[in-house]
Amino acid sequence: KTNSKDTCDENQAIQDYLESFKLAVQQNIFGYITINISCPNTFGGEPFTSVDKIKKLLDQMDQIERKCLVFVKMPISIDDGLFVNLLEEIAVHKIDGIVVGNLQKNKNGDHIKEKLDEFMISKGGLSGRPTFERSNELIKLSYRNFGQRLIIVGCGGVFTAADAYKKIRLGATLVQMVTGLIYNGPSCISLINKELSELIKEDGFKSISEVIGIDARI
How many helices (H) and strands (E) does the chain have? Predict the structure, then answer.
């Protein structure tokens, strides 16, 4: 939702999502649209990371016709139980998949390698490497529980082909990178694709589709 005090109220926030979504689908030029329910920086916090509230939002979004795929971008700084409960609700709506996941709001623990200054601790969330392990855990959890229903987009701490391969093996059909692209530049995309092909061959697979979720299967 818009980062504004005018959209803090739950009903105003829903209308804000609906207005943006309608404008986007009317263009009919997008391959997919992501509904971000978990940005830690929006004014008033995250209003739709509880089951009852996301139901209220998606009930209304279901009524808007769309031709493109629609994904929900998931929080990662929540426990497994709530995460699965959110997926159970998402799965009954007109949602094609999920992006796992958003920024890391937990600023303590083994995923933090250097001391953070006071400003970094007080504001926003962490991207890049601090998101890697937790997003991987939730990709695996998502695939085990909803791999037949939801497309999983792996996002968080991808810098190399090995990083992307890890997420694919845990259940991601698609992989996104943000921080890695900033630090390594656009040429890293072709390098990752090239090295992914090599990793697949080394492991005896013929295509990437054979790899998806192989490390998440019970």
Answer: 8, 5
Compute the distance between CA of residue 143 and CA of residue 145 in angstroms, rounded to an integer.
5
Q: Are 32 and 58 in contact (CB under 8 A)?
A: no
Reading phi first (left if > 0) and then psi (alpha if -120 to 50, else beta), residue 11 is in alpha
Asked if 179 contacts 125 with a C-beta cutoff of 8 angstroms, the reply is: no
Query: Do the Cβ atoms of 99 and 34 come closer than 8 Å?
Result: yes
Write the pLDDT tens digit of every residue in 82-133.
Answer: 999 999 999 999 999 999 999 887 777 766 777 766 666 666 788 889 999 9
pTM over 0.90: yes
Radius of gyration, alpha carbons of the chain: 18
Angle (CA) 30 33 38, round 5°: 160
Sheet of 69-74: strand order equals 32-36, 69-74, 97-100, 151-155, 174-176
Q: Residue 105: in which H helix or E strand, if any?
A: none
- Tell the residue number behind the tokens 């629609």, with chain if given: 70
> At which residue do the structure tokens 């390698």 appear?
113
